[in-house]
Amino acid sequence: MRSVPLFLTAAAVGLAGATWTEADVTVTVTATSTHTVCAATTTTTIETCEAPGSSTIGSWSAYSTSSSAPDGASSWSAYPTSSSGPDGASSWSAYPTSSEGPDGASSWSVYSTSSSASAGGHSTWSSGPDGTSTTTSIPAAVITSAENAWASQWDAQKTNYVGPWNDWSVSGSGAGKPTKGGSSSSSSTSSSSTGYTTSAPYGGWNASTTSGSASTSASSTSTTTSSSGCPTYTPEKNASDICNSASDRSVWCDNLDIDTNSYTTQHKTGITRSYTLVIENTTMSFDGTAPKVAFTINGQIPGPVIEANWGDYVSVTVINKLQDNATSIHFHGIRQESTNDMDGVPGVTECAIAGNGGSKTYTWLASSYGTSWYHSHAFAQYGDGVRGPIVIHGPATADYDIDMGTVMIDDTFANAVGTQADLITHYGPGGSFNTLFNGKNINPVGPGGEAFQWTVQPCRKHRFRIINSSSQNLYVVGFDAHNMTVIAADFVPIKPYDTPTLNIAIGQRYDVIVETNQPVGSYYVRAVIQTGCPSGGANSGLGTANAIMNYAGSNSTPVTNTPITNITAAGCIDEPLASLVPWVALSAGDSGKFTSSVDTIPAGLVTQVQTSDDGLVFQWYINNGVIAVNYSTPTIGLLDSAQGANNSAISNAVVLNEANTWVYFVIQNQFFASHPMHVHGHDVSVLGTGTQTWDSSLTSTLNFENPMRRDTVVLQGSAGPGQPAGYTVIGFETDNPGAWLMHCHIVWHVDDGLALQFIERPNDIVSQKYTSKDSYKQECAALNEYQSANPQAVRQQGESGLKRRTTYEHLGTSRNHYSGLKRHASHSHKRYTPRR
Q1: Are 341 and 639 in contact (CB under 8 A)?
Q2: Distance between CA 574 and CA 552 in Å, rounded?
Q3: Where is the composition biased (Polar residues) (predicted)?
Q4: What was the pLDDT predicted at 236?
């Protein structure tokens, strides 16, 4: 019998169709502390039970199958979805009448108090061989030629974008040109029936009042609160609340709270949350335009939310039903302590999950809490749909009433993303066609589609978990007429600050609180593309994507357009470091250690190279090399060889031999374009960043006291034409042995080489005996069998986000664009065309 999850928050139902049934959630209790989990019944209600003497924190034991609803109603289904909750909670409307009870749980159980602290320790550090597999001697003339070619392609593309659609300036077949406006025999909702509305004059970015939810101190335990434009009220405990409530979000179960250091406190609840994700190929329309090839997870895009509590184990079984693609799942931002083989990177931490029904189960500890996402790390698959949100519940640095769940912001293209990748690899950057909120938007150039919408309660504080899961775009995000109080960046709780807009790069996440203190109405939620980024500049015709935030009781008149005011997005930037201050203050070593051991990593150099199997392509460099992995021989397997970390087959490696010491890197950009850089296995300390060439005199500007910690940071580009490229300085402690990628999260850039591997404590990686596991051996054997038996399968050197090409010659000449376009569009068509 499948047990029900122990909680069901707005995050679980915030995505259309992201139901627990589709995610096939089970809960396994491996140890008990204060509660006992009861099995689910076959009815739409749930049984609850309490262990003797158990705590009532987070428990809704009063609502059992033998009792009526709190106000005497005979069943939960008596409450229509449009009504408020029976106990006055404002978030019941998220639960359909067929749910198994609004709280969706029997009790909150099994929180173990056991923990252990990891020792620190600092010692000297020296870099090992870089292990680059390509030449590091590139003539200056070739570099200049490639940079000019990329820049000229960018400029040329911008002039061709009359509207938001792609209009590739290439003669011949016209591949890559979408149907402007879109048409399809498949059903779609017309724009006139979607109800996407706004209530004038609330169309601008400026908030007319200042949110009262910001705070620079710990969450108050007061039972009342007030804000500008709203009366004083008593925060209510929602059925979705666990371990804390709206009156004090700073606390958590087992005597943990917002001040607990999650890096040294190995909190384990003894609960395992289990999910099954089935990946299939199909066709889908996201915005009312013609359907295109898409990869779904459990029949939906984005995939279902993976939801857990701080300290839970998470087990995810991935079944790959794609015919012509192997795949993997990477759990973005999860540090994978002692589980390097669960990081989901083909050719580095595993082989890959074979197509035609191959499977793998990933298991990891939710050692951090907050918001993130999971996605394929094989080629550009996540751009075509293999992505979904992660919510790990924990304490917060400011109070809120309702958790609204995740806001996944994605870009979509006229082509399948595989085709788009080939076009950009050969001809330079191009713009996206549309921007999606949780997989939806209206057609920007014609009828059809629908905006994603939320219903919020007036005069309440709502938590939104914003994720940039796009393929190429950085955004400026805002809620019309409302401020945001930012409480977390990536997996790191921060001191709250107020802002009307938020810069968010690919891979980054921000948790924000929006107080609904404006007149009842409907307000746009906007994502404006930062046009100073390498591809965003070609997309200025689209500019903005809108979702809708509807106040309960609003009957606003629908409108078709509302202008953007008081917002610029001409840069390609991160949130200011000065705004991002971690709540738990931790130092990042010291300047003396930095000066004696810092290493410089050049990044972002672009060249054009001739390949024996893919023609003339753009190629992006980092650490004077490009990454080239082989799925059949992952890095963790190569480390088992006699050469160990010195194995020349380990591509573009930086070897970190010393344990528990701080290592520092100046990432020096070599090109005008900014790059969102993601580091696996660590939250890195961002010591400083700037739009100039780094020199040692800038050491005094770095922050070692309590720098921002996060897993994704923007490597600065140029401040303007003719200006030098910028730098970003990071550091981390070598306390997590593993083969960890650092890569640009623009799909086309990592696909064209912009990644390296930190080989952290290679001897300790080998001692984990990852390659001795039956699961590792079985996956690799299944992949080899699949590739041998399926001649149409995309080979390992052509499908990874870590592109492998066979032969490189650095040339300054171009080839026939027309013939190349036809050939590569044909290859991509074979790769992504679904079978019936």
Answers
A1: no
A2: 34
A3: 790-799
A4: 84
* Shared domain check, 710 and 645: yes
pLDDT at 141 over 80: no
Distance CA 710, CA 333 (A): 8
Report the SS3 class of residue 212: coil
If asked whether residues 613 and 570 sit together in one domain, one would say no
Alpha-carbon distance of 457 to 550, in angstroms, equals 9
Are residues 818 and 171 in contact, defined by beta-carbon separation less than 8 angstroms? yes
Residue 702 inside a domain? The answer is yes
At 436, which CATH number?
A: 2.60.40.420
**pLDDT tens readout for residues 609-639:** 888 777 899 999 999 999 989 999 999 999 9
Neighbour tally for 633: CB within 10 Å: 17
Contact (Cβ atoms closer than 8 angstroms) between residue 744 and residue 755: yes
The tokens for 158 are: 């911008």
Beta bridge partners, 370, equal 392
Q: Which two structure tokens, joined as six digits, stand for 596? A: 């004696």
Query: Residue 534 contacts by C-beta under 8 Å, 6 or more apart in sequence?
Result: 154, 429, 472, 572, 673, 674, 746
Assess whether 524 and 572 both reside in one domain.
yes
Same domain, 361 and 480: no
End-to-end CA distance of the chain: 33
Collapsed DSSP state (helix, strand, coil) of residue 87: coil
As a whole number of angstroms, the distance between CA 129 and CA 806 comes to 22
Boundaries of domain holding 538: 400-583
pLDDT of residue 679: 99
Q: Which amino acid is at 89?
A: A
Q: Do 331 and 421 share a domain, yes or no?
A: no
Give the pair of three-digit tokens for residue 457. Answer: 């309660």
Cis upstream peptide for 707 (omega within 30°): no
> Structural domain tally of the chain?
3
Q: Flag whether 629 is in a domain.
A: yes
Is the whole-model pTM more than 0.85?
Answer: no
